[in-house]
Design brief:
Layout: E1 24-29, E2 43-49, H1 55-71, E3 73-79, H2 86-98, E4 103-106, H3 115-123, E5 127-131, E6 143-146, H4 149-164, E7 171-175, H5 181-194, E8 203-208, H6 213-226, E9 232-235, H7 238-250, E10 258-263, H8 266-273, E11 279-282, H9 285-302, E12 308-311, E13 315-317, H10 330-336
Parallel strand pairs: 2-3, 2-4, 4-5, 5-6, 6-12, 7-8, 7-9, 9-10, 10-11
Antiparallel strand pairs: 1-3, 11-13
Helix pairs in contact: 1-9, 4-5, 6-7, 8-10
Length: about 350
């Protein structure tokens, strides 16, 4: 039996708010499954997301809750105050280990800085699974359930190139933030799909947005001031993309600038349907979280090793298909948004 399967635990502990760290901890208890790790027979799993306000992570939490209820898991959840709050995630992780969880699912705010805290948890026999965002190095966590973010970026890059053709472009990159691997992968994928390097003269502006709509709008305003003739916008996610659209609309440019994005949330797909975004790469956070919970349960109850990378899928969604680029329409996107 693995080290993570421990016995003689106390009755369920309700996690409390870790105010000093600025994170919110909640507990959602399932139908306690008998014969597993907890003193009451339940498997204990913790979920730590980047924030608790981004709809992507709200859907991820929903997936974890559904899987917890189905599998009789005691689930606790936590989130940082903002995208990039590594300190809050470290505190949440330590609290969960102290509460006796069997496994922790985490979307790292800082792929490198979180690694020592993850290692301390693993040293104590806790399985740690990264969701959506890999750690650096990737094997710092036991496993990864995520979109192939390089492919997600590549799909929208291929689409933008197919739509724009061979004429020179003026491209704005609305990135995430330094130190977050998911942002790097999506941006690199876009550039690869478009067939250019980062230093290509067609890239006329690059700004960090933190994946935030207001910051995306400010970044786009800055880019337009630098180069009014921008005709393609890559955005790290749909909130940043919608911020860019707002800035473009204010300048009377919304109709002639192609904005592409990644995430495929319901609001984002509706923006594609409305023509505000040209296309998005849809990923599936509910599936990431549910598979993560199931993996911890299998580890505890069946001594099944948790390891490797599981690709949870990605599809390009658009109502204006481009030759040679496989895509789904917005009807499919709305039926499957973040499923």
């Amino acid at each position: 039996m693995s080290q993570a399967r421990r016995t003689a635990r106390p009755v369920p502990v309700t996690l409390v708010a870790a105010c000093a760290a600025g994170v919110l901890l909640l507990t959602s208890c399932g139908e306690g499954a008998k014969g597993s790790s907890g003193g009451d027979g339940s498997v204990k799993v913790g979920l730590i997301t980047k924030t608790d306000t981004n709809p992507f992570f709200v859907k991820m939490k929903e997936g974890a809750e559904r899987a917890a209820k189905k599998n009789g898991v005691e689930l606790s959840s936590a989130a940082g105050k903002f995208d990039g709050d590594n300190e809050g995630q470290v505190t949440a992780l330590e609290n969960m280990v102290a509460a006796g969880v069997d496994g922790i699912l985490i979307t790292p705010n800082d792929s490198k800085a979180i690694v020592p805290a993850i290692q301390r948890a693993r040293d104590k026999g806790v399985v740690v699974i990264a969701l959506d965002t890999p750690t650096e190095p990737q094997d710092a966590s036991d496993a990864l359930f995520a979109t192939d973010n390089l492919k997600a970026g590549e799909l929208i890059g291929q689409y933008a190139k197919a739509r724009h053709g061979d004429k020179p472009a003026k491209i704005a990159l609305l990135n995430l933030a330094p130190g977050v691997s998911v942002g790097q992968l999506r941006r690199d994928g876009f550039l690869k799909g478009y067939g250019i390097k980062e230093n290509d003269p067609q890239v006329v502006c690059a700004q960090d947005t933190g994946g935030d709509q207001a910051k995306g709008q400010t970044a786009m305003e800055n880019c337009l001031q630098k180069e009014p003739g921008i005709d393609i916008v890559y955005s790290i996610n749909e909130p940043a993309g919608m911020g860019a659209y707002t800035a473009l609309k204010a300048k009377g440019r919304a109709g002639d600038v192609m904005v592409v994005s990644v995430d495929g949330g319901c609001a984002g797909v509706k923006a594609v349907k409305a023509g505000q975004l040209a296309a998005t790469s849809q990923q599936y956070p509910l599936l990431m979280a549910s598979k993560g919970v199931e993996a911890v349960v299998a580890h505890v109850k069946q001594d099944k090793k948790v390891s490797g990378y599981t690709d949870t899928g990605v599809n390009l969604v658009t109502d204006r298909p481009a030759g040679g680029v496989s895509a789904k329409d917005t009807a499919y996107g709305l039926d499957n948004c973040w499923g």
